[in-house]
Amino acid sequence: MSKPPPALQDLAAPEGVCYGCGCAHPSGLHIKSHWDADGKHVVCTYRPPDQFTGWPGLVYGGFIAMLVDCHSNWTAMAHHYRAEGREPGTLPRIDCVTGQLNLSYRKPTPMGVELTLKARVEGEVGRKSRVICEVWAADVLTVTADSIFVRVDAAQLSSQAASRVETTA
Ligand SMILES: CCCCCCCCCC(=O)SCCNC(=O)CCNC(=O)[C@H](O)C(C)(C)COP(=O)(O)OP(=O)(O)OC[C@H]1O[C@@H](n2cnc3c(N)ncnc32)[C@H](O)[C@@H]1OP(=O)(O)O
């Protein structure tokens, strides 16, 4: 069997420490996002481990939000790279953060099933991207999300956050 192509995370942030998507997180989820063959969607497959059960037999909703957050953010970043005609991983680096995360839980999401997240950028204005994400459990659409991601200078963001904490401590 041929090796799958590298994921967006492997290409653009191999040193990432995000719990959901960081390649270098020691015990994180390590989700992987790829452009779909149609070139219009970014997809991710993930089977939630047993500890993320909510109601018996169902995936905990907050856990689904975590998957949607990371995957939608990578969809926004992939879109920015493409809009600039660049491959993920080329410099200067592109980073986005979540501005708004809006999920609609439409059907229960069963445990024990591989989930498929399918996302696209629906509209972009300046630094903001609106990302629509669907979560499928086999052929059942269980969750939809309509969220906003804002492009940032990540180094500046981290240092600002650290200095605010020092100021208020
Ligand atoms: C390894 C790399 C990959 C890691 C992936 C991690 C995936 C996980 C993603 C996350 O969990 S990120 C963490 C959760 N999010 C945050 O902590 C963000 C906190 N918010 C902020 O730091 C600031 O609000 C933000 C950087 C988003 C914006 O502040 P800025 O001062 O840079 O921007 P500004 O306020 O000038 O707004 C720029 C535009 O974005 C819009 N905007 C800002 N915040 C928004 C918001 N929250 N929702 C919607 N739109 C927002 C704002 O209206 C404006 O729109 P216009 O250009 O149309 O005028």
TrEMBL record:
EC number in record: 3.1.2.2
Q: Does the keyword Metal-binding apply?
A: no
Bilayer topology reads: Peripheral membrane protein
Gene Ontology CC terms: cytoplasm; membrane
SUPFAM superfamilies documented for this protein: Thioesterase/thiol ester dehydrase-isomerase (SSF54637)
- Where does the UniProt annotation place the signal sequence? none
GO molecular function terms listed in the Swiss-Prot or TrEMBL record: thiolester hydrolase activity
What Pfam families does the entry give? 4HBT
Entry keyword set: Apoptosis, Cell membrane, Cell projection, Cytoplasm, Fatty acid metabolism, Hydrolase, Lipid metabolism, Membrane, Transit peptide
Which Gene Ontology terms describe the biological processes this protein takes part in?
fatty acid metabolic process
Compartment(s) = Cell projection, Ruffle membrane; Cytoplasm; Membrane
Listed under catalytic activity are: tetradecanoyl-CoA + H2O = tetradecanoate + CoA + H(+); hexadecanoyl-CoA + H2O = hexadecanoate + CoA + H(+); decanoyl-CoA + H2O = decanoate + CoA + H(+); dodecanoyl-CoA + H2O = dodecanoate + CoA + H(+)
Q: What is this protein called?
A: Acyl-coenzyme A thioesterase THEM4
Query: What species does this protein belong to?
Result: Azohydromonas caseinilytica
Lineage, broadest ranks: Bacteria, Pseudomonadati, Pseudomonadota, Betaproteobacteria, Burkholderiales
